TrEMBL record, chain A:
The chain crosses the membrane at residues 21-42, 54-71. This is Uncharacterized protein. Keywords: Membrane, Transmembrane, Transmembrane helix. It comes from the Bacteria.
TrEMBL record, chain B:
It comes from Gemmobacter aquatilis. Residues 675-890 form the Histidine kinase domain. Keywords: Coiled coil, Kinase, Membrane, Phosphoprotein, Transferase, Transmembrane, Transmembrane helix, Two-component regulatory system. The keyword Membrane applies. This is histidine kinase. GO terms for cellular component: membrane. It catalyses: ATP + protein L-histidine = ADP + protein N-phospho-L-histidine.
TrEMBL record, chain C:
Coiled coil: none annotated. This is Response regulator receiver domain-containing protein. PANTHER family: REGULATORY PROTEIN, STRESS RESPONSE REGULATOR PROTEIN 1. It holds the Pfam family Response_reg. One of its GO terms (biological process) is phosphorelay signal transduction system. It comes from Gemmobacter aquatilis. The modification 4-aspartylphosphate is found at D54. The keyword Zinc does not apply. Residues 5-121 form the Response regulatory domain. Keywords: Phosphoprotein. InterPro entries: Bact_response_regulator, CheY-like_superfamily, Sig_transdc_resp-reg_receiver. SMART domains: REC.
Length: 90, 899, 123
């Protein structure tokens, strides 16, 4: 029944909150990177760019997967420690 | 490759999947399936996102529109790496509310409205039908490829009959493994594991073809890049609206497709698996798409012009003489198609049975009571629904002729299911979302989809007349299917997506803003939106019910099955601190029961059933506000006083407990002495009175004999009472000597029945026994066990008030325990007496004095404790019923063990 | 002399048999009842000279019947003897509070019982 959450947090909890922030931001960043070709594709109309485009997209994709994998570990531990504590007030 | 060999391979493969599913189900039934529910299996099961559309269609898509095919996988990738936003909440809600399908989830969120359940079910069936047809088509086409390539003069098989056979086989498999049992959590461990195996097969197959193409047909990645430059695919230009639109669309579809919802939410066994899937599933998608462009490029180059690019995965290895590789590719495609069809039909069948069949049955059945085994009805309706769904898919396939490109059909389905997105996201993030809003949004979105995309997909002039395409319906120019509201020149797919989602969202939002939610809706809205806020005391959907627990138990037994229902009720009663099987109908219990039932028949049906039994004991808006007010007040005070108060309460409770125990002991002792006194004095009175009379002498001999008989009878009664008391004392102290040996239960029952037949021998009972089930060898004290059984059977003989008395003896073995139920068909024991009957000197009717002092059941209870088991009253069996539970092998008496 | 009429409300058949024998031999007319539920109505109907009530009865307890009888003026003065097999002080108090004229614990001596019955009539 603790309604007031502390204003400042210990180092570990602080870190966890920022990891959650990162997890929330990741799809936003991913969406931006995936939509980027929309901006430059029409400009370079004459050059044959399917292969570089493909390599770029797969590169971004792999990067996002790596980031998600890195983030998922502390997040799972987090939910094990305190099942959904102080959730939406972070 | 001979065609027969292909069929053989298919059959062998399916048999293998059967075996996997079967073994896993067996293991899961024994509770040994922990490792089967690993994050890896979960992630692999998610791969049903990649159907034959991915397996064959992606290459065709790439050959036609370059990299655009990637959008179908980029959307889900974004959703999964962003799991912290939506998926986590979705899965948590799904598990907490024990959701059975996406229709159930939406109906549950909006006040358990069955109308919404029906709407969502209809949308899903409509959207899934072309998709299932697509799978049938791809399998048929791949069969055709082999037949055409056959060197044995094998004629092209009749494609229609091939599709029919495939559909029939899939129906059989799905029914066998998808509806074997009506599981409590609606989870299908066996099927999911089989799907995971198929996921591995299809990934390996596609990677193998890709590696073959890149390193054996071409000469490495550099060569491929060069070939891409040279190929016609490079002429493709990115269309921004399609690129962004399809990314959004596939992201929506991955959570709203019924089959994805099934594996993602319903089959989820552990929320932490989602964290692994958040990166592993995108990785799987990446691996599946990696070689798509190379295969397309090489296929376009190597294969003759006019070859169907949708089948390059298969035809390319065949044309290079790689029969084995082609076979692997064929199995990969077969896997993709079958796994999708199986899960989709299970998901749809669940919806149809829970939201269409069950509500119909509830309203159409003659009596208000729940009679008969509902589970069989549910299973039957699911089986028929599976057959129906696959039948529809086959019908669509044979009607549409299976000609259009694979990619187009898939996207049409996607737009259809995406209509559920606003209602779903609104439901879990916005407490203001209402049922009316959801109905309007879904209805309008669905209508636009049907009109602007689904019907036109049959081709101009097929479902919609050509005039409608050209001039609009009734000459209304602004209603042309491909140019709604006069917006021209849009890609038809994007056009339909744009208008359906825009109108859907608008109607949903406005409908929600201008309507007022009912109480159940508000409770559910709070439970969904604030699902992680566990600190808040969740308001219950029920006020103290007037429901009769026994009636609830009868209903639960019909739906969950006898054992599961009894176990659930027992656990709930225990949680309330009550012994036996009947918890009080408090709101918490009704809530738990409703959720438990919902996991079998869906929230709306479960809610309707309990409402019926609980009468009008529903919460009102005023109740909700009162509860919320109380909660807020408590929270305010408690933050300050919490710790001291808790300490005080704890101490006070301990004191109270100790005091209560002492008082109880004292009261019990007094009551016991008083009872004994009564039971001893009563026969003494007769004895003394008649002996004094006789001492005076001077009476006729027959009279004297009569009085002597009375004295003798009463003396025997006294002796029996003393025997019972001593027996009870010995049993209670645990000083009883048990005579343990092996005994055949059937013989013991036989013996008890014979002994008990002396009680009221004038009554003839119909005895029902299951002799094979009774063939159990027990290690116990057979005489003591017989004593219990004789007592129970005699009681039935004495008190069963049926005109045609019946006695049922049900024996079951559960692990290392044996359960013996003794059930008669009388009126049973009223609920308020059920807890009393095992007490000493408890007798329900005083007329039945002949039976002794009312110590029989008390002795039974003590005997069973000594035998390491229990005896309890079993409510809801249509008569008085007692359950005796004891260990199969009793090694030592429990008291000796404790010593 | 008109026979004195005693109504016996007792559910143990053997005890009822003994009491009936004793009172008849002493010149009483005895009606026996085994159920507490109908006892009050029977008493009002038959107007016995003496009521002998068992404390623990099926249907309705002896105390309840007694209280009901004492509550109306026409039966308020009716002699009532309470019988109990429990024989505890508490029961005796309860019976006296409810207005019993005499309290007899089971088992009793025959002579005592008959004398008590007579004394209640004479009083």
């Amino acid at each position: 029944m603790k309604r007031r959450s502390p204003v400042f947090l210990a180092r570990r909890s602080y870190r966890l909150r920022r990891i959650r922030d990162a997890a929330r931001l990741l799809p936003v960043a991913g969406g931006f990177l995936f939509l980027l070709p929309v901006l430059w594709a029409p400009a370079a109309s004459e050059s044959r760019d399917t292969a570089p485009d493909g390599i770029y997209l797969f590169g971004v994709w792999l990067l996002l997967i790596g980031a998600a994998a890195l983030l998922s570990r502390p997040l799972v531990k987090d939910s094990e420690d305190a099942p959904a504590s102080a959730e939406e007030r972070g | 490759m001979p065609f027969n060999l292909l069929v053989l391979a298919c059959v062998t493969y399916v048999a293998f999947l059967f075996l996997v599913a079967f073994v896993v189900e067996r293991k899961a039934a024994r509770g040994a399936a922990r490792w089967l529910r690993s994050p890896v299996v979960y992630t692999l099961s998610l791969s049903i996102y990649c159907t034959a559309w991915t397996f064959y269609g992606a290459v065709g898509y790439a050959a036609r529109s370059g990299l655009e095919f990637l959008t179908i996988y980029l959307g889900p990738t974004l959703v999964f790496i962003g799991w912290w936003w939506i998926l986590r909440k979705l899965v948590h809600i799904g598990r907490q509310q024990r959701v059975t399908s996406i229709a159930d989830m939406i109906s549950s969120r909006y006040g358990k409205s069955n109308l919404l359940g029906v709407i969502v079910t209809v949308i899903c069936v409509f959207a899934a039908t072309p998709y299932i047809a697509l799978q049938l088509q791809s399998v048929t086409l791949s069969f055709g490829v082999f037949a055409a390539a056959g060197t044995y003069g094998w004629a092209m098989p009749d494609t229609n009959s091939t599709a029919l056979w495939v559909a029939a086989g899939l129906t059989l498999f799905t029914i066998l493994f998808g509806t074997r049992n009506l599981d409590a959590n609606e989870q299908h461990t066996g099927v999911v594991t089989a799907i995971a195996v198929e996921a591995v097969v299809k990934l390996l197959a596609l990677l193998a073809v890709g590696i073959f193409v890149v390193w054996f047909v071409a000469s490495g990645p550099a060569d491929i890049v060069a070939r891409i430059h040279a190929s016609s695919i490079s002429d493709w230009e990115l269309v921004p609206s399609r690129w962004a639109g399809f990314t959004l669309l596939s992201g929506a579809a991955v959570i709203t497709l019924p089959r994805m919802f099934q594996v993602l939410v319903v089959e989820n066994s552990d929320e932490r698996h989602l964290a692994t899937a958040s990166w592993a599933f995108p990785l799987y998608l990446l691996a599946m798409s990696l070689f798509v462009v190379p295969i397309a490029v090489v296929g376009l180059e190597v294969m003759p012009t006019g070859a169907n690019p949708d089948l390059f995965v298969l035809t390319l290895p065949l044309s290079q003489g790689q029969g084995a590789l082609a076979m692997l590719a064929f199995l990969g495609g077969f896997s993709s198609a079958t796994s999708m069809v199986i899960v989709a039909s299970i998901a749809l069948a669940t919806m149809v049975s829970n939201h269409v069949v069950m509500p119909l049955w509830l309203s159409l059945r003659p009596a208000q009571s729940v009679s008969g085994d509902v589970r069989r009805l549910v299973l039957l309706s699911r089986r028929l629904s599976i057959a129906g769904v696959l039948g529809l898919g086959y019908l669509y396939y044979s009607l549409s002729g299976g000609s259009s490109a694979l990619a187009a059909i898939g996207l049409i389905s996607f737009v259809g299911v995406a209509q559920m997105l606003p209602a779903m996201l609104g439901g879990i993030f916005w407490r203001g979302a209402t049922r009316n809003g959801a109905i309007w949004g879904l209805g309008i979105g669905f209508a636009v989809w049907v009109y602007a995309l689904f019907l036109p997909s049959f081709g101009p002039g097929a479902a919609l007349p050509i005039d409608v395409f050209m001039q609009g319906p009734f000459g209304l120019d602004w209603l042309r299917p491909y140019a709604l509201f006069g917006v021209q020149g849009m890609d038809p797919m994007i056009h339909a997506l744009f208008w359906s989602l825009t109108l859907n969202t608008t109607a949903f939002t406005l409908g929600s803003l201008f309507s007022f939610p009912g109480p159940v809706e508000r409770v559910q809205g709070l439970a969904f939106v604030n699902v992680f806020d566990t600190e808040r005391a969740e308001p219950q959907g029920w006020v103290q019910g007037r429901a009769e627990p026994e009636a609830l138990l009868v209903m639960a037994q019909r739906i969950l099955g006898d054992e599961a229902a009894l176990a659930f009720f027992e656990a709930q009663a225990q949680a309330q601190g009550k012994a036996g099987y009947l918890p009080d109908p408090v709101p918490e219990f009704l809530d738990a029961l409703e959720r438990r039932l919902a996991s079998s028949v869906g929230a709306a049906t479960a809610h309707a059933m309990i409402t019926e039994l609980a009468g009008r004991a529903r919460v009102t808006v005023a109740d909700l506000m009162r509860m919320a007010g109380e909660t807020a007040q408590i929270m305010e005070y408690s933050s300050q006083l919490e710790s001291q108060r808790e300490e005080l309460t704890r101490t006070a409770r301990q004191l109270r407990d100790a005091n209560e125990k002492l008082t109880q002991l004292s009261v019990q002792k007094d009551a016991f002495l008083s009872q004994i006194s009564h039971e001893l004095r009563t026969p003494m009175t007769s004895i003394r009175a008649f002996s004094e009379i006789m001492m005076e002498g001077d009476m006729p001999p027959e009279m004297a004999a009569n009085y002597a008989r009375i004295i003798n009878e009463e003396a025997i009664r006294l002796t029996r009472l003393l025997d019972d008391l001593l027996d009870l004392g010995v049993l209670e102290n645990g000083t009883v000597q048990l005579n343990l040996k092996l005994a055949n239960l059937s013989e013991l029952i036989e013996r008890s029945l014979r002994a008990a037949s002396h009680t009221r021998p004038e009554r003839s009972f119909t005895i029902q026994r299951d002799l094979p089930a009774e063939q159990i060898f027990l290690r116990t004290d057979p005489d003591r066990l017989c004593q219990v059984l004789i007592n129970l059977i005699s009681n039935a003989r004495k008190y069963c008030d049926s005109a045609q008395p019946e006695l049922r003896l049900v024996v079951r073995q559960r692990g290392a325990r044996v359960i013996i139920d003794v059930i008669d068909n009388g009126t049973g024991i009223p609920r308020d007496k059920q807890s009393l009957i095992f007490e000493k000197f408890a007798r329900l009717t005083d007329q039945m004095r002949a039976g002794g002092a009312g110590l029989g059941l008390a002795i039974c209870r003590e005997i069973m404790v000594n035998l390491g088991g229990s005896v309890s009253y079993l409510p809801g069996q249509g008569g008085a019923a007692f359950r005796v539970t004891l260990p199969l092998r009793l090694e030592k008496s429990p008291h000796e063990r404790a010593a | 002399m008109v026979a004195r009429h005693a109504m016996l409300i007792e559910d143990e058949p053997n005890i009822a048999e003994a009491i009936r024998f004793l009172l008849r031999r002493d010149g009483w007319e005895v009606t026996t009842l085994g159920d507490g539920g109908v006892a009050e109505a029977r008493v009002r109907e038959q107007r016995p000279d003496l009521v002998i009530l068992d404390l623990m009865l099926p249907g309705r307890s002896g105390i309840e019947i007694l209280e009901a009888l004492r509550a109306t003026p026409d039966t308020a003065g009716l002699p009532v003897m309470m019988l109990t097999a429990k024989g505890q002080g508490r029961d005796r108090e309860a019976a006296e509070r409810a207005g019993a004229d005499l309290f007899m614990a089971k088992p009793f001596s025959n002579a005592e019982f008959v004398a008590a019955a007579r004394s209640l009539i004479r009083a």
